[in-house]
Amino acid sequence: xxxxxxxxxxxxxxxxxxxxxxxxxxxxxxxxxxxxxxxxxxxxxxxxxxxxxxxxxxxxxxxxxxxxxxxxxxxxxxxxxxxxxxxxxxxxxxxxxxxxxxxxxxxxxxxxxxxxxxxxxxxxxxxxxxxxxxxxxxxxxxxxxxxxxxxxxxxxxxxxxxxxxxxxxxxxxxxxxxxxxxxxxxxxxxxxxxxxxxxxxxxxxxxxxxxxxxxxxxxxxxxxxxxxxxxxxxxxxxxxxxxxxxxxxxxxxxxxxxxxxxxxxxxxxxxxxxxxxxxxxxxxxxxxxxxxxxxxxxxxxxxxxxxxxxxxxxxxxxxxxxxxxxxxxxxxxxxxxxxxxxxxxxxxxxxxxxxxxxxxxxxxxxxxxxxxxxxxxxxxxxxxxxxxxxxxxxxxxxxxxxxx
Length: 404
Hints:
This protein has helices at residues 2-10, 31-44, 88-101, 135-139, 156-163, 171-178, 195-209, 213-225, 288-296, 310-316, 374-389, and strands at residues 48-55, 58-69, 74-75, 81-83, 231-232, 256-257, 265-266, 284-287, 331-332, 338-344, 347-353, 358-364.
């Protein structure tokens, strides 16, 4: 009853993105942080970025830096939305944990085989190891998939050529082709990052709920968190959602072949990959401030009501060993530091949650030649920023409570 009352007070009826501006988040004690971010962006030739900082579930700082769209001279605001890339996996894992709490599946539920969720694909299987895969294996990147022959989610043209396909494969076609190949290791015996595994989790959500992945996540996961401006990404500039930034490849990038295989040459961030088909492995767009709201809803702290039980939150953030991936998060440490990153051509995102209750989020609309390793550079910026401000984050402020 108490939790429901708190939720009724805190749950938003409109997007925070529509009301939050840089002027609202100006704080003199954060000036050194602003200078650090500006310097970081100049060093890596980043057009624009958005920073959100929480302290024990209070959104104490949010600011846009640089350009949301340089050509239109549109300044970045905290409410601009970005492609989140693999940060989407944290959202998908939360949906799976919610279904487990409702008794609709278990982490031990098999994916294939007579009792598997996706047993309609069994006729394509030639390796019996597929019948050993369960949902937890997919969540922890332990299902037996590897990228030694390339990541199938970003190798559309090669997949089309290999299997003689005339158009880019969607989830069911891609699954049938991929599971006709042997696994690279026995499920549960190793760990290798797999985007395809999280596509399968998206399909499991659809099969269990009888709804589209996007609909279920939006209505049952994101909106209960107070996140109303998340969307599945488009592939091209013309597909941008209202409030979405423009993406920029590294300076000097060459054009790439369009994923349709029609010979068109495109910027890598606009058409080289079928981002929309990534679904729960990497297709969400959202703002740094609403992403902070989502994290506050799955972190086990008391400021914002969690949509998952403390048992589920603990399971997702449990440290097992350095070789075992957590559920949805990219990494956790023995002392309770959590990290989730995402990287595409044109965007980088990082979430870092610290044992003292602070959470720092930075998303850029520009990629660099560092690729996914840019997250390490960003984490260094966070470390220096925390050293500068210590515990002196803006007090008595919570941007989550802005009236809409």
